[in-house]
Amino acid sequence: MIVLGLESSCDETGVALYETGRGLLAHRVHSQIDLHAAYGGVVPELASRDHVRRLPALIRQVMADAGLGLNSLEAIAYTAGPGLAGALLVAAGTAEAMAAALGVPALPIHHLEGHLLSPLLAADAPAFPFVALLVSGGHTQLMRVDGVGRYQLLGESVDDAAGEAFDKTAKVMGLPYPGGPALAQLADQGRAGRFSLPRPMLHSGDLNFSFSGLKTAVMTVLRGEGAAPADLAAEFQAAVVDVLTHKAKLALKQTGLKRLVVAGGVGANQALRARLDEMTARRGWRVYYPEPALCTDNGAMIAFAGAMRLAAGAAGHAGGAVTVRPRW
Ligand code: KG4
Ligand code: ZN
């Protein structure tokens, strides 16, 4: 099956072609970072308009990259949620229209399922079952994954997501948008331990997280003694990494599984990767990451999730009504 995948849930327009048995044929992402930078965050209306501007050209480019015509498409997968309603509607409307015109099934995909399955696109892919640590701007979750569509939530953040904590903390520290990568870069130049920040819920015994207090703790340090920004960033990053690593270890112990899969934008964080590598290697477990280019939002993970859903028996539907699920 040749599946076209479209992603427009937030500030990246992603398009990809995946063929069952062959793998990724082509993929392109257009990031709106420059568009939103002046506002210090994503402006939903501007995001939607830019997706409208970019998506048709990206689709043409990806088809050309793969040397294929539209009539070779056998299904169209798109992110149906969660995300910004207006932004989601761009890929959804395009996908449903294309599916109707071409007479192929349309497949609404959950954005997090895309992230969750993205490590399976790597040459060295994990086998089921595994524990997934999903760390994006909107979610922080630990899941047990037994197969496509067979997901059990083990724990999640009770407030801010890990990526959200990176972004908000970067903002109070005066770092440029997008905050997460900027904060991580600064942290790598500093030393953790010079200031003491909490490790929220580290010993709560369950697999839940809480990150909103960390931003407040950083603000308190900034107001009080002040701090060398790099050292404060390093301590913040260490706090997030400590908690994520500890809970991932706990999830592997509780499930008895030996494979950990990391997905979502924060999975690009090098300090987190180093700690997870060390934690798993010491116990003879293994950790898998998506390719760096597929850590943040992209169409490849959506095309792939669509192909996996089809292979698992999903029928999709004939293109028609356009509905999205912003809070799915
Ligand atoms: O998965 P993603 O691209 O979008 C969502 O679905 O949310 O994740 C974006 C999040 C943002 O919060 C961003 O700041 C964070 O991932 N992020 C990072 C790094 N790269 C991206 N956080 C920490 N360190 C990084 N290197
Ligand atoms: Zn995402």
From TrEMBL:
A GO BP term, please?
tRNA threonylcarbamoyladenosine modification
Catalytic reaction list:
L-threonylcarbamoyladenylate + adenosine(37) in tRNA = N(6)-L-threonylcarbamoyladenosine(37) in tRNA + AMP + H(+)
- Known Pfam families for this protein? TsaD
Q: Give one GO term, molecular function aspect.
A: tRNA N(6)-L-threonylcarbamoyladenine synthase activity
The record's section on InterPro entries has: ATPase_NBD, Gcp-like_dom, KAE1/TsaD, TsaD
Positions annotated to bind substrate: 134-138, 167, 180, 269
Q: How is the cofactor bound?
A: Binds 1 Fe(2+) ion per subunit.
UniProt-annotated location(s): Cytoplasm
Keyword list, A-Z:
Acyltransferase, Cytoplasm, Iron, Metal-binding, Transferase, tRNA processing
Has UniProt tagged this entry with the keyword Transferase? Answer: yes
Q: Which residues form a coiled coil?
A: none
- Domain named Gcp-like is located at 24-304
Its cellular-component GO annotations read: cytoplasm
UniProt lists the family membership as follows: Belongs to the KAE1 / TsaD family.
Question: What does the record give as the function of this protein?
Answer: Required for the formation of a threonylcarbamoyl group on adenosine at position 37 (t(6)A37) in tRNAs that read codons beginning with adenine. Is involved in the transfer of the threonylcarbamoyl moiety of threonylcarbamoyl-AMP (TC-AMP) to the N6 group of A37, together with TsaE and TsaB. TsaD likely plays a direct catalytic role in this reaction.
The protein, known as: tRNA N6-adenosine threonylcarbamoyltransferase
Source organism of this protein record:
Nitrogeniibacter mangrovi
Lineage runs:
Bacteria, Pseudomonadati, Pseudomonadota, Betaproteobacteria, Rhodocyclales
The gene for this chain is tsaD
